[in-house]
Amino acid sequence: MGLYLGRREFLGAIGVTVVGGLPGSGVFAAANRPNLVFVFPDQMRGQALGFLNEDPVITPNLDAFAGESLVLPQAVSNYPVCSPYRAMLMTGKWPHANNVLSNCTSNTEPFGCELQKDDRCWSDVLKDKGYSLGYIGKWHLEAPRAPYIDCANNRGKTKWNEWCPPDRRHGFDFWYSYNTYDYHLRPLYWSNDAGRDDFHYVDQWGPEHEADLAIKYIKNEGAKYRRGGRPFALVVSMNPPHTPYSMVPKKYVDMYAGKTSDDLCNRGNIGAADTKWGAYYRKNVKNYFAMVTGVDDQFGRILEALKQNALNKDTIVVFTSDHGNCLGCNGQMTKNVHYEEAMRVPFMIRFPGRIAARSDDLLLSTPDIYPTLLDLMGLESDIPQDMQGISRAKLFLTGKGVRPDSQLYIWVPPGKPHLGRRGVRTHRYTFMITKAEGKGPVRLLHDNVKDPYQLKNVAVEQPKVAAQLEKKLKKLLRDHNDPWLNS
Ligand code: CA
Question: How far apart are the CA of 224 and the centre of ligand 1, in A?
Fold first, then answer.
């Protein structure tokens, strides 16, 4: 009997009559539920995977992992910047419902922009099911508060870093984290029991240090990290390949020895060498790819630890990112824009014996990750009612089921939830409308098949397509009660 009959079919098959609500225990006995290892570097674009033959980047571990995984090359970050993505990931809700409408900084703190204590995250659900939960690396869901933590990233006009108190950790009982701190060669962390003033620095590249700790957590050295005999969920949130790109070990840069910056510039939306953004791309691309290669190397070490500890079979492994990186393409420095380099993220999931290795063009959206993972773990009836994402577990398991035909794109100016940019991305098009104070809406349409580098706005040339996509966009926004519709 397949483990992944739907619950109703499964219970029927074993002679249990189900009336009304289904029991919450799922098809797994509690102690046999799968583990979860969720690894997501920051700012790694979907194109930066060697096996896709898009960016000329070296990723041997991810290439091998892809061969064992469901790969979703069309997965996006719907609001491609740090905190809004992270809040959608944790809550399964869209930004207007979880109140993380911008990055969590001192500027947005007055709007209450941080992960809400009473939102029920997937980690809260797993905690209640007896899981051990570990979080290692960047959090960026806490609003910085005066008096500000005395560290870099908090010395400019905008403050970024903050401690996350234990009662705001949403079930994570092993904590080794920080809010925002970008000095990758000397990162800063709060360990589990450290108070707000008790952060420490480490003289090691962030992803390597975090992989060291993830491996200890997986091995559960000295039974210090998690409860034995119970399932666990471990998040490893690496900061590279985020800026500053120069903060990367030389050994990874050396892997690109002999490559000129022009060898690494293979996209049609990179400006000429004598333009501002063309020069920016050429200056940074080697280090950016070197960082991706370093992340790949450290991810490989985490996978090896799972294998060495005979945990491969019982562990769901996800590799993704919070958003991509333009790196100068289309005149954009980094992210928080509708372009493919910002929106598309890696998304690979491995669940041996359950999810067949393959590539699928599913239009995955960020809020869908939460219910999909819980559903895969046999916990679909524990998914909170107010959660807005849609489980794609059936599609992951069988390749069949209802497929979304679009993905939302969102950008909200701080303190103005009714303004900014809203758009939809489909398999063919990216359509977007911008609203600003005192200015009428501005429409933009890219045909991503005819114009893969999104160089032309064809909204006026193709009014029918634009109108159809506008209708689709407005329906999605109505479903989410986005105040933008009425502005
Ligand atoms: Ca980020």
Answer: 30
